[in-house]
Each structure stands twice: as structure tokens, then as C-alpha cells.
Structure to design on (512 residues):
């Protein structure tokens, strides 16, 4: 039966329409003493208590960090991590982040999971409190009999019954309390999943926005180079028409301008697709942000110093690590839920009500009834199955512990990768900036020498190609410096606000 699968004590105290008629003081005293004794024994809780997993972390980040940048030595600031996107000083980016936080569908899905976990916790908590059921029934029965004269007769009987059934499970061995503990941990895990979704969302919005501006800047550079190449092409044709150069120079000039022009449609396509991606992140249709984001903007740049903090901060900041810890807690509590079935369970059952064959006299004092008495049930011949269930829960706890360690290592790796990438990309960008300056000078000199007839047009082509290539690379490197900064903030768990005195178990009254 279903009641036999519940651990604890179901104490059924029945309430009825006219409870004042219960005058048996001895029964009342028995109920009170039984409740007192059961409460005295209800402090026992089987199963292991949750202990936070011990994790050995390095004292500092080992990524290559230049002393001038001081990336890993900067102490993490909570305010800077919470609203890290504001360091780019870009109002459009700030607006996009706010809109995404309000309307993103993945975030709304995570919020719905929090509400589900909160409701599941309420279900688990309900096992600790009393229940009250009202019942009523009517039954008509008949039977055949014979009279004294030997004739057949039919006898009918009406039966009316009404009353209340109340139940209360007293959790002697802690199975229900462990279930509530697991539900609390599940709720905490759902909250951390929401926070992790928020962290990923903020980073994704920033990354897409930075890449959008990079595509737009590449289009600007491509058009500028195309204009310069077209100018050189006109000059070459004039010299060809004057008989100073061969048709090969004209063909090479036209080939270069055609190749450069072919890049613009691809960049425009990537630009439009990135706008579509940002619109979806806002919870809107793909073209919803066309008017807002189509105008060309600068690539947002952040500060050279990054609040990396120390590795131990990750256990407190990263929501995915906090979620993994909560899942270990839930799995540990469920070991106790399973182990509680190894012990006997006790039930105090009682009933009181009215029963009569006359509906009008149903609630007469002479028609009332009551019953009360304790019972015990111990599933002696199912211990093998129950113990196997305990082992299942222990294996699940072990899996959650392994997953937690994997999550911690992944977090460490992401921060280290972001630190070294940020440092090296800044050096890469500086080298590209120098290359762009040199290539611009080379183009100017090559065009001047070609005009004077002192060099071949191939040198002009090579100089223009090199300039275009390095300018595009510089734009992408500028964007990569910013996206690496975004990746570092995400790896550090930035993007959500930690309450000042946050508890491991989230209050069920937490605002949505």
C-alpha cells in the first residue's frame, strides 16, 4: 500500500462536526502522551550530514602576466564583477544587457525552474505537518427473507456516515526531514542555475556586440582600401593609355579592387547575422534591432587591468560551482531518505464521526463513534531492496562529487586561459598597430615611386595588400582584446549580485 512506502509516523487525529462530544478524557490523555513520547524520539536523523567538499586550489594564478598589466594581482572587486560590462563605457552595450536581463527566454526558463523547485520544496515540507480530510458516504442495501407464513419479503437498509480524517506524520528517523533538506538543496541549485544563465547571457550579449562593431569597422576599412585601390587603378589606366605601362598593371589593379570589393558582401552578411543573434538574446524577432544597431559604431575597449582576484574566490563567485555544491548536498540528503526505510515506522490512527440509518438523526449524540490506537510496521523482508536503494543514492552522491571537481577544474582552466589570452592579445595588437603604421608609409612611398616611374606596379599592389591585411587584423585584434576581457569576467563568475549575508539554502520567500 502507498502508506507503507512512507517513513515516519502518520498520526491521524480526526476532527468532526461536533468534536465537543468527545468526552473520554482517558483517550485524550493517551493521545497527548503518545505525541509527547514520539516528539522526544523524533530528533534522530539517519544518513550522513552534508560536508562541503574539500578542494585544493593554487594560491595564485599561474598564467603569464606582464608586470605592467598586473592582471592576476588585482584584487577582485564585487561591484566591478557584478556590473562588469560598464567598464566598456558604451551606453548601447549597457542598454542591450539590461534588455536581455529583462526579456531573455533562457533566463525566463531558469526562473520557471526556480518556481518549480520552490513548489517541490513546499510539497516536501508538507510531509512534516498535519493533514485533514472530510468524508461522507451513503449506502443502501437489501436482502431477501421469509415471513412467518413462509412468504418471501425484501428488507432494505439505509446507512449514512459523515466525519473527518486528519493525519500527521511524526518524522522519527528523519526521512521526511532529509527529503526537505534535499528539496532545499535542489532549490539552491535552481537559483545557481539561474545565476549561471545570467552570467552566460551577459557575456554572450557583450561578445556579440563587440563582434558586431568589429564587422562594421572591417567594412569601413575595406571600403577605405577599396577607394584607395580604385584610385591607383585609375592612375594605372591613365599611364597605360599614355603608353607608360603595360596592360598587365591594369589587370592586376582591377583584380585587386575586385578581390577587395568581394569582401564587403560577406562582412555585411556577418554583420546582419550578428544583429539577428543579439535580437534573439533580447527575446525578440531577428530583425528587431536592425534600426538600433545598423549604424556603425566603435569597438568598445576596456581597461588594461583585470580584477582576477585569487583562485579561491571562484568557489564563492562562480554559479556553476555553487550549483554543483548544492547538487552534492541534495544527493547526500537523499541517502538519508533511502536509509530511513531500513527502520520501522509507527502510525497513530484515530477516527471520529457519525453513523445512522436515519439521515435526520445522523448527528445525534447516540450515533457518534470514535477510535484511536497506535500501530507499527517494519519491512523486514525488503531490506535487500532498501539497502540497494541506499547504495544507489551513495553512487549518485559520488557522481555529483566528481562533477563538482570537474566544474572547479574547468573554472580554473577558463580563468587561466582568459588571463594568458588577454595578456598575449594585447602584445599582438601592439605589434599589429606598428605594422599598420609601417604599411601605410610603404603604400605612400610605393605610389609615389610608381608615379615617378621608379618602381613596378607590383610593389604598389603588395603594399596595398599588406596594408589591407594588417588593418583588418588590427580591427579583429582590438575586438579580441575586448572579448578576452569579457571571457575573463565570465570565467570569474561576474554578472550577478551576491547578497551580503547569503545562506546556503535559499529562502522560500525569495522574490521572483
Amino acid at each position: 500500500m502507498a502508506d507503507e512506502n512512507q517513513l515516519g509516523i502518520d498520526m491521524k487525529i480526526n476532527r468532526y462536526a461536533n468534536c465537543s462530544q468527545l468526552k473520554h478524557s482517558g483517550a485524550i490523555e493517551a493521545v497527548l502522551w503518545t505525541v509527547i513520547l514520539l516528539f522526544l524520539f523524533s530528533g534522530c536523523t539517519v544518513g550522513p550530514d552534508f560536508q562541503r567538499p574539500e578542494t585544493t586550489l593554487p594560491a595564485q594564478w599561474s598564467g603569464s602576466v606582464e608586470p605592467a598589466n598586473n592582471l592576476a594581482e588585482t584584487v577582485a572587486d564585487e561591484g566591478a564583477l557584478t556590473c562588469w560590462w560598464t567598464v566598456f563605457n558604451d551606453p548601447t552595450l549597457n542598454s542591450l544587457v539590461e534588455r536581455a536581463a529583462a526579456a531573455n527566454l533562457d533566463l525566463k526558463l531558469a526562473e520557471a525552474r526556480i518556481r518549480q523547485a520552490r513548489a517541490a520544496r513546499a510539497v516536501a515540507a508538507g510531509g512534516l505537518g498535519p493533514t485533514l480530510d472530510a468524508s461522507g458516504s451513503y449506502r443502501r442495501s437489501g436482502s431477501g427473507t421469509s415471513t412467518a407464513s413462509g412468504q418471501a419479503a425484501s428488507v432494505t437498509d439505509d446507512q449514512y456516515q459523515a466525519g473527518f480524517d486528519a493525519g500527521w506524520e511524526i518524522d522519527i528517523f528523519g526521512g521526511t526531514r532529509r527529503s526537505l533538506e534535499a528539496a532545499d538543496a535542489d532549490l539552491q541549485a535552481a537559483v545557481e542555475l539561474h545565476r549561471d544563465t545570467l552570467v552566460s547571457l551577459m557575456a554572450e550579449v557583450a561578445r556579440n556586440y563587440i563582434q558586431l562593431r568589429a564587422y562594421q569597422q572591417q567594412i569601413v576599412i575595406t571600403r577605405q582600401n577599396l577607394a584607395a585601390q580604385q584610385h591607383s587603378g585609375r592612375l594605372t589606366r591613365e599611364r597605360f593609355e599614355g603608353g607608360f605601362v603595360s596592360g598587365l598593371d591594369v589587370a592586376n589593379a582591377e583584380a585587386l579592387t575586385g578581390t577587395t570589393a568581394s569582401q564587403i558582401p560577406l562582412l555585411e552578411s556577418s554583420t546582419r547575422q550578428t544583429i539577428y543573434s543579439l535580437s534573439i538574446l533580447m527575446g525578440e524577432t531577428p530583425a528587431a534591432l536592425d534600426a538600433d544597431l545598423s549604424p556603425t559604431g566603435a569597438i568598445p575597449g576596456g581597461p588594461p587591468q583585470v580584477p582576477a582576484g585569487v583562485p579561491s574566490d571562484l568557489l564563492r563567485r562562480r554559479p556553476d560551482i555553487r550549483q554543483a555544491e548544492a547538487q552534492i548536498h541534495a544527493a547526500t540528503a537523499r541517502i538519508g531518505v533511502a536509509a530511513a526505510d531500513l527502520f520501522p515506522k509507527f502510525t497513530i490512527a484515530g477516527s471520529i464521526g457519525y453513523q445512522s440509518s436515519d439521515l435526520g438523526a445522523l448527528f445525534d449524540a447516540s450515533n457518534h463513534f470514535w477510535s484511536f490506537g497506535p500501530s507499527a510496521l517494519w519491512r523486514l523482508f525488503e531490506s535487500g531492496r532498501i539497502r540497494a536503494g541506499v547504495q544507489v543514492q551513495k553512487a549518485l552522491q559520488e557522481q555529483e562529487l566528481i562533477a563538482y571537481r570537474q566544474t572547479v577544474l574547468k573554472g580554473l582552466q577558463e580563468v587561466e586561459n582568459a588571463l594568458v589570452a588577454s595578456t598575449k592579445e594585447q602584445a599582438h595588437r601592439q605589434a599589429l598597430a606598428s605594422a599598420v603604421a609601417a604599411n601605410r608609409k610603404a603604400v605612400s612611398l610605393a605610389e609615389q615611386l610608381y608615379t615617378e616611374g621608379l618602381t613596378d606596379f607590383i610593389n604598389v599592389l603588395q603594399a596595398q595588400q599588406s596594408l589591407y591585411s594588417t588593418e583588418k587584423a588590427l580591427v579583429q585584434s582590438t575586438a579580441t582584446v575586448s572579448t578576452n576581457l569579457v571571457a575573463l569576467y565570465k570565467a570569474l563568475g561576474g554578472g550577478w549580485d551576491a547578497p551580503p549575508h547569503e545562506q546556503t539554502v535559499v529562502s522560500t520567500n525569495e522574490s521572483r
Remarks:
- Residues 1-25, 64-76, 501-512 have pLDDT under 50 and may be disordered.
